[in-house]
Design goal:
6-stranded antiparallel beta sheet, 21 strands, single chain, elongated, alpha+beta, 5-stranded mixed beta sheet
Length: about 800
Amino acid sequence: GGGHQIVAQGPRAEEVMGEDSILRAVRGGKVYASLPERARQLISRGAFHKKVLETSARARLVYHDERYPALREASEEGEYYAEVKRQSLARQSLFPYHLHRFRVTPFQYYRDMLKDLLKRDKPFSTLPNFTAADMVAVLGIGRDEFVPLVQACKAKRLLWKVNRESAIRDQLPGEPVDLMVEPWWVLRPASSPSVSSQQEDLLEEEAKLLASISSRGSATIDSLPSSHQRAWRSLYRRGLVAVDVPIAEDDCIAVPPLEGFVSNKDGAGEDGDPVETLLYGMFFAASARTTIGELAAVLGAPTVEVREAASVACRLGFARRTTQERRASVSSAMASARGGVDLATTPTASGSDILADHPLASPPLEDTASSAGPKGIAFVVDTEVTATLMMGSLLKDQRHAVTLFEAGKLSGRLAVRELLDELSRVPSVGEGEIQFLIDQIQSLRLVLDLVCAAEAEGGCQADGQPPEIDILRYEVLADLPPSTLNRMLSQHYFLVAFMARLPMPLLKCPISREGPVVHGFPSEAAAMPWLRLLLWEQVQSGLTSLVLPKGWQLRRLPSIFGHDDRLLVEFWPEDGGRSQDESVVVHASSALGVLNHTLLRSAVLVQRIAKESVEGDTGELVTKEVALPLRDGDEGLGGHEDVRSVSERYGLSQCAGYLTMLRTGPGTSDWKVKGVQFGIPLHSLELCGEVCRRCEGAAALSWNSLSGFRDTMLRLRGDLEEIWTRYGNGGHSQREGEGEATSYLPSAPVAFDGTSLRPWSDAEEIWTVELAAETRGAPAAPAKEEEAQPPPLIVL
């Protein structure tokens, strides 16, 4: 802003101000004379102007924007736009459609990019995804056309070796292909230097249309008479008119299943095209009833940049404008509140009135609450499920899978129902590993049927509108900053259901009073062994166990275990990640060495199990899964005393997921709760079917059940925080800031004797105190090799 201070870091000009500082100074309206005196002593006017030119061109700022006087002071307009072109082509960025005075047409720009690609003998796959898609739209050259183009160039063998540019020139397209347009798109006179020479041989109708557009400044395509439709396309091919896709702050967009998407390489990132970075974020966070202004707030990006990205998405056909749908939705909600006056029947702006600062701008949509439109339901899957959907041998229509993979979201009831229809065509029987993939697809179909049934019940929205249904990809959610993630989920959804057994670390989106109801782990701590210890403590029944912090060492086997026992040693997830081997079963007689070796790299949970707990032939644990939600009258393990006790405490009659029970003896009741998985399982078709049937029978996803379920999960989250605070590093983060990582490691030994949980007091106090103090703070810097100390000894 205006108060920005630029601090010199060294004597060299390039060290005085970095690119970010220069850009902040330009956007803050600073010119050289307004820099701090010390900065002006260390960087000359010429050096400053050169850095302003380079940095502004990289950000592709508008030259004549009154907010950037330093840009006009640093260079002439022609020099600046030449630098924009040079940098954009070098980075293979999208054409800068927002620069109306950019004296190059999209056709010329992509023709030059294609020529450079051929000249350097680079494959088409080196183009970023969105740049490649735009090149296809403008030149008609995609991956399939590029290969024969290269072959034709190389066929001129001698010329290819001596003068590649000549060999390439005759193979390049001579004019742009026909553009697929929407009626509300806008035509304006082009600013290319070749405009005057192209006007000489115009037909009378074309000349009149060009004069009309020039005099008016712009015209929407739907405002032209039918007789002029062919004329404007001719003018476009000649580069005499440009086509704008204006998007206003109160417009809404939705991302349908992607068609024509080019999967090359991701051009987003710190050194990539900022428009492409925004496009990926917008693909994921956009909603048919969320305005561009609201979307910008969710993404934490300037509204004008989100508008530009949305314009590109609509131009490429990867998004569609849904402003009128939102107007109808808001009008319906307001009509309900006002006693039935439907504002949707009143006149609305035409397709041309869609850009606030465009000559054809319309008044903005009335400021209504962002929650006026219905919120939706989201189901979260991981990349493994997405990869299964992308197998062409199983699903013929790949649009939905590609959209889920590339955009991170498949959005809307129609798209989800199309995917359901496609899933229903997958055969139910396969061979080998194919059967597992088929079962996974069938499980997904069961879950989507369940979600659609919950959506069809209605009654969950204030205006009676059915909610939207989205499928989200977990890994894209995990890449979002926690604040952006929670804003996005709260903005779009009242219910978020996760698939079970998602990869670690978990998302930082714990259940809360304000956000959506989460059918998944209520907090990160719930995915740790703390949950098991809590459940055992609540029901006063579980496996005799000992928790040992990382770095501790034992001199002898703890007395709570006998030398004839079998021990299950589980590695404690650290910073949300799991060890490659999650657990190992050892005999107590040989456990000491295993424990001490394991404790050097991980905290552990050691549990005493019975010989019946292990399958003799395979060495696998003998476990059974109990589908949730529980029902009254459940028999077998569903009626087990421990299961019923846990259910009464934490509302497992409303929870989607399953309990894992471990066999602990020969009797039918000799089973103990080993863990809880929240979410809907996709790894087992049988278990998924049972969970879905129970959820449907209990109406677990219905609006009436969500309030009580939220209260129950908030109580579970609170109990977990309490036990974690007692025995772990509760409340202590390892890093500061937005991306802080909370440590869920134990800070001192904890024992469970089969009925109660307590600190393990058989260790010498001095080691307990030192370890607790060390693990509560930030991780200490590694000691020098010669100063390394032996790990603490727990003396019994």
